[in-house]
């Protein structure tokens, strides 16, 4: 791009200069986490920062914040950059001074770091807007952690219009990846996600008289085992599939068989066509297993996020740009990941790329996984993460 004259050295220096602010912002967000679609204070904090830097913004999808930075050079291209802002219902187990002040709520997925990083990216872009042409759209998205996902709500409200981005980018911290590295892959990267619920109804009563009952607990146990055949005997072994039951509710007692048992779980797939067929196999299996013992089963499948497929051309370009900025050895090929992300909804509409930012540092004891009470990250990555995102966004402007 002819108008792209910002150097990586300039961005590195600017990011380092503001890194203490980035870390302070991350810690403030970390100490005040808010659950999905309740991020009112988080949104207000984002708005205050953007206003202070002279960046106009608007709210969307309730607690979402969207801003545009228009380069003063020539060019009509648009690149969108997204960060998620919600926290998780987890009680933090940490002795850090910035520990969550909200009981039972924690930024255990790094969304505080995503938000702080994008805030400094916005500040950097605003600072050097005279040195590029085109538009950067900044999306601070609520509700990534729960269905239907904030991405779908923002898309329905027109976040990908006026102007429509030529591509969209996002990062996610990854504690399995060494700090200072990033990882990405072209094509399918993360799984689809659906929520499964089975309500098994029988005839309860005294546990000492099973011959007079229709035992939904026994039926539930049979169903849990039988559902694994959907993976082991129906799914193509070359296409990763996971079906897990994580919650069982059987409100009986040691001598009481309940009338009803509820199972809840998740289905993860890497192929949308197989995903649809799997839903039918799941329903058929549940109906048949229940009928075999005289019970009934109501199967509820709540559609979740689609398979996240990075645009191959965009991913290849990001690899080149990231290699220029960090060094080629710091850019790794990401493995497929059975986690799910509603960023996939954006990529269904415009080409995009989702990359992983390593935050692991064993020497500092920072090794805990995402969605755990001990999760933390090496804040040294916040010294360069905003500069990298700025470099990638500007590099993708046509």
Any overview of this molecule?
Helix content is 33%, strand content 27%. The protein is an alpha/beta fold and 398 residues long. Strands 1-2-4-3-5-16-6-15 form an eight-stranded mixed sheet, sandwiched between helices. The protein has a four-stranded antiparallel sheet with strand order 10-12-8-13, with helices on one face. It has a two-stranded antiparallel sheet with strand order 7-14. Helix 4 (111-127) links the parallel strand 3 and strand 4. The radius of gyration is 24 Å and the shape is elongated. The protein starts with 7 loop residues before the first helix and ends with a helix.
| Strand element count | 16
The largest sheet is:
8 strands, mixed
- Described by its quaternary structure, the protein is single chain
- Write the H/E string, N to C: HHHEEEHEHEEEEEHEEEHEEHEHEH
| Beginning-to-end CA distance, first to last residue | 6 Å
CATH superfamily of the largest domain: Zn peptidases
Strand fraction equals 25-35%
Kindly name the structural category.
alpha/beta
What's the average pLDDT? Answer: 96
- Could you tell me the CATH topology label of the largest domain: Aminopeptidase
Q: Would you identify the CATH architecture of the largest domain?
A: 3-Layer(aba) Sandwich
What is the CATH domain class of the largest domain? Alpha Beta
């Amino acid at each position: 791009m002819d108008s792209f004259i910002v150097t990586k050295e300039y961005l590195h220096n600017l990011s380092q200069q503001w890194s203490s602010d980035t870390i302070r912002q991350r810690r403030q967000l970390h100490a005040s986490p808010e659950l999905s679609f309740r991020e009112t204070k988080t949104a207000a904090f984002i708005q205050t920062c953007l206003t202070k830097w002279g960046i106009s913004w608007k709210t969307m999808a309730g607690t979402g914040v969207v801003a545009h930075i228009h380069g003063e050079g020539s060019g009509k291209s648009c690149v969108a950059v997204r960060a998620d802002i919600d926290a998780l219902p987890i009680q933090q187990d940490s002795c850090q001074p910035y520990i969550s002040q909200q009981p039972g709520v924690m930024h255990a997925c790094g969304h505080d770091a995503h938000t702080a990083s994008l805030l400094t990216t916005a500040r950097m872009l605003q600072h050097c807007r005279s040195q590029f042409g085109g538009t950067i759209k900044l999306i601070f998205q609520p509700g990534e952690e729960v269905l239907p996902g904030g991405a779908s709500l923002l898309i329905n409200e027109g976040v990908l219009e006026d102007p429509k981005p030529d591509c969209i980018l996002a990062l996610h911290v990854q504690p399995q990846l060494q700090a200072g590295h990033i990882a990405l892959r072209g094509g399918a990267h993360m799984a689809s996600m659906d929520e499964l619920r089975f309500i098994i109804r029988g005839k309860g009563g005294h546990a000492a008289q099973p011959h007079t009952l229709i035992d939904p607990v026994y039926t539930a146990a049979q169903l849990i085992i039988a559902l694994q055949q959907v993976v082991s005997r129906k799914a193509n072994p070359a296409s990763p599939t996971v079906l897990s039951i994580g919650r069982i509710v059987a409100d009986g007692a040691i001598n009481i068989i309940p009338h009803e048992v509820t199972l809840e779980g998740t289905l993860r797939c890497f192929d949308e066509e197989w995903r649809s067929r799997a839903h039918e196999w799941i329903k058929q299996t549940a109906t048949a297993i229940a009928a075999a013992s005289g019970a009934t089963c109501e199967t509820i499948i709540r559609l979740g996020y689609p398979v996240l497929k990075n645009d191959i051309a965009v991913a290849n370009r990001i690899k080149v740009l990231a290699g220029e900025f960090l060094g080629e050895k710091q850019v790794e090929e990401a493995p497929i990941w059975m986690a799910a992300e509603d960023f996939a909804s954006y990529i269904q509409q415009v080409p995009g790329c989702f990359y992983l930012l390593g935050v692991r540092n064993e020497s500092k004891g920072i090794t805990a996984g995402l969605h755990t009470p001990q999760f933390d990250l090496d804040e040294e990555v916040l010294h360069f993460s905003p500069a990298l995102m700025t470099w990638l966004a500007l590099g993708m402007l046509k």
